[in-house]
């Protein structure tokens, strides 16, 4: 009889069935011989599983309760800023755990303290998750579907970024700094097109106003939300992908872009250097002129230089963040806790 594993995330089921963070681990559990039950609410978490596998530190309190009731092991993936003691590098505004409600903080602390194993997605997360209660958190990097996110012969046209135009997200991702970098690029490449992927939220009109003030609205296209499966198309059509966040616990979109051979312009913050290594263009994420300079450096590469660097970008991801690497590390953790 197949062993049963419950995969839990408190996100909508549609997102769980599409996004890389969940797909990678659901497939890993199936590869390891489990019958996987997917749940996103407390009532849907079954009581008869051999293993509970739960994403996000605060929401996983629900899975923890069911696992403890059944006396079964639970692996929690603390993959987000809610398990980080983070403040903005310029404004000092608290974010992540420090900006959470009191009850969410309690949930995070209890989950990290009492789970069978806590897995974090980067070395960057180890110290803070330990301070918040995790006992010897284990690092297992996220993975990229390198078969899907691959090199392509599609012509590259765009400079692309991804962020939801919600005020806190725009601040975290330095979306306004990205927009303000564009006029400097257009001085050298006046026909260059820029793409912003992400839900149009409460800061969208402000960003549109900035584009009008800078007279760049013809060069910038806010395409809104897209299905996860369409991300690869944009990555393959992009000359460069820009992600200048003030912090990242991993940076899956960066790794996906690199897997497509798309050059990346990034900040030297959080786990981004851990993912990118020496293969990206690092800029000052608080300085639009610096961001523009990074974009221009990529645009001026010759086709042969671009192609050579693209191969290096993809090889770096294949060598370090493949699905197989994550599966093998997760298998070791599962075998260890099921033997107890």
Shape: globular
Global mean pLDDT: 96
Tell me the β content. 15-25%
**Radius of gyration over all CA atoms, rounded:** 21 Å
Number of strands: 14
Number of helices, where a helix is a run of at least 4 consecutive DSSP H or I residues: 14
- Global structural class: alpha/beta
Give the N-terminus to C-terminus distance in angstroms. 20 Å
Unreliable sequence segments: none
The assembly state of the depicted protein chains is single chain
Give the ordered list of helices and strands.
EHHEEHEEEHEHEEHHEHEHEHEHEHHH
What does this structure look like?
The protein is α/β, with parallel strands linked by helices and 340 residues long. Helices cover 42% and strands 19% of the residues. The chain contains 14 helices and 14 strands. It has helices at 13-16, 20-31, 60-70, 102-114, 126-131, 167-173, 175-188, 204-213, 231-236, 252-259, 272-276, 288-299, 303-320, 323-338; strands at residues 3-8, 34-39, 51-55, 74-78, 85-87, 94-96, 117-120, 138-139, 158-162, 193-197, 220-224, 238-243, 263-267, 281-283. α2 packs across α14, α7 crosses α12 (288-299) and α10 (252-259) packs across α13 (303-320). The relative contact order is 0.13.
